[in-house]
Amino acid sequence: MEAGFSEMRSELQSRDALWRRIQLECHRLHAELLKIREYKDMQEIQIMHQSSCVQLTEQLENKNAQLLLLAQSQGQQQEELNKIRNRVYQEEQYHRSEQERMKTEISDLTEELHQKEITIATIMEKASLLERQLKMELEIKDKLLAKQQFLDFRYKVIKSENMHLKEMV
């Protein structure tokens, strides 16, 4: 996108330079026209050769025609320059709005990531707490199971003793 802007700026500068050259040529032609008019006036005052006057008039007409063509070209160049400026302005505006949109999106994603990190940290804390609770409950159950096994063993021993005593009686 930067290359497009650079290309448009180069084209704009080129057209500005052309515009300035056209304006300089117009000024030069105006000055030349004034000189020609002065020369023509001097020729009429001095009553010079008729062919010289005709030649100067033709030159003047040619210069006038050139001046008109340059003026027309100048108007077209100005229109083209305005179009390019508008296009560059629109592209810059679009680029700025895209940058703002991307900044907003990045900010939103960063906030979302932060929230997810907080959620993960909370879940990890709860998981750690549950793991400790489960270990404690497992230890308690292991102790109860050992006690139960011990009581089962004592029950069997007492039952066996009872049977033995019954047989003896």
UniProtKB/TrEMBL annotation:
It is found in: Cytoplasm. Residues 99-126 form a coiled coil. One of its GO terms (cellular component) is deuterosome. Its main location: cytoplasm. GO terms for biological process: centriole replication; de novo centriole assembly involved in multi-ciliated epithelial cell differentiation. Keywords: Coiled coil, Cytoplasm. PANTHER family: DEUTEROSOME ASSEMBLY PROTEIN 1, SARCOMA ANTIGEN NY-SAR-24/CYTOSKELETAL PROTEIN SOJO. This is DEUP1 protein.
